């Protein structure tokens, strides 16, 4: 069994532990009314997008999400939360270092605390039980988002039950042989759709795209046809499923908690990788953490 296959299967248990941890770490996570920025790179950035929408929808305060490299340093925030599995990603460390003398409180949600981030962030929330050996992130990302959902009072046992269902039920038939995948979301699940597409690209070298569900109609649906899959991680707009089916494309309707739907996509990415003879533990051109020296450019 690959590392990523093992790790994605442990997500329900990790989510339960994160929900139990959230009350104890409440004081170092965004407080009601705080203007907050959540940052990350790659997968963590997409989790930040989802968390930002959830927080604003919950009425907890203005919340923005940025790639760490694109954080607008001229803006004033009451708190910055960094999501970082490795604690070594250059862009995250550079940002935390730059914020140290500004008076803005910083919190890092981290998989491995024995890394440079521990001396740069004001506070840590350690999810070492969700850390991973794999390059391709699964459980750390969804566990970090579960922590933030639980902090907002938006996580419950139903999400964990849905995750177990996502691991146990067969995937829709015939998907592994398809050539192109599009993932759709609405609200907070738009970030999950972006992450779903990233997982397909990383693990299986698939042509994968992602959009807000209504935006899919504004041009991207033109690529739908025989051999393509369109997967909605959330409730789809009226008529969209029929529109995709008329093109000859395969439609997959999300029926579980959107985060559990992402777990189903994790399984799909591994199935497609197996179909193509790829090793998901050795994704092309990727490393577990992007650490840059002068003159280098990030690959992820």
From TrEMBL:
This is SIS domain-containing protein. Keywords: Repeat. PANTHER family: GLUCOSAMINE--FRUCTOSE-6-PHOSPHATE AMINOTRANSFERASE, ISOMERIZING. The keyword Metal-binding does not apply. It comes from Streptomyces yangpuensis. It comes from the Bacteria. Transmembrane segments: none annotated. The keyword Cell membrane does not apply. Coiled coil: none annotated. Signal peptide: none annotated. Residues 26-169 form the SIS domain.
């Amino acid at each position: 069994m690959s590392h990523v296959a093992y790790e994605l299967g442990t997500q329900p248990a990790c989510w339960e532990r994160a929900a139990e941890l959230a009350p104890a770490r409440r004081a170092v996570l965004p407080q009601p009314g705080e203007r907050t920025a959540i940052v990350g790179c790659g997968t963590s950035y997409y989790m930040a997008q989802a968390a930002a929408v959830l927080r604003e929808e919950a009425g907890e305060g203005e919340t923005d999400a940025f790639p760490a490299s694109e954080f607008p340093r001229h803006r004033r925030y009451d708190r910055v939360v960094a999501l970082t599995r490795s604690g070594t990603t250059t862009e995250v460390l550079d940002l935390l270092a730059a914020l140290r003398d500004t008076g803005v409180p910083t919190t890092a949600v981290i998989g491995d605390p024995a890394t440079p981030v521990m001396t740069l962030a004001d506070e840590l929330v350690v999810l070492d039980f969700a850390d991973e050996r794999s390059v391709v992130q699964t459980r750390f990302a969804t566990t970090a988002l579960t922590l933030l959902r639980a902090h907002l009072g938006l996580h419950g046992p139903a999400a964990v039950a849905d995750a177990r269902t996502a691991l146990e039920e067969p995937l829709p038939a015939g998907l592994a042989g398809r050539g192109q995948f599009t993932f759709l979301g609405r609200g907070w699940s738009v970030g999950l759709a972006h992450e779903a597409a990233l997982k397909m690209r990383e693990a299986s070298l698939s042509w994968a795209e992602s959009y807000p569900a209504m935006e899919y109609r504004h041009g991207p649906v033109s690529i739908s046809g025989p051999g393509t899959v369109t997967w909605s991680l959330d409730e789809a707009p009226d008529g969209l499923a029929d529109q995709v089916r008329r093109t000859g494309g395969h439609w997959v309707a999300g029926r579980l908690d959107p985060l559990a739907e992402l777990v189903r996509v994790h399984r799909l990415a591994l199935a497609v990788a197996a179909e193509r003879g790829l090793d998901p533990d050795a994704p092309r051109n990727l490393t577990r953490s992007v650490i840059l020296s002068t003159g280098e450019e990030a690959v992820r």
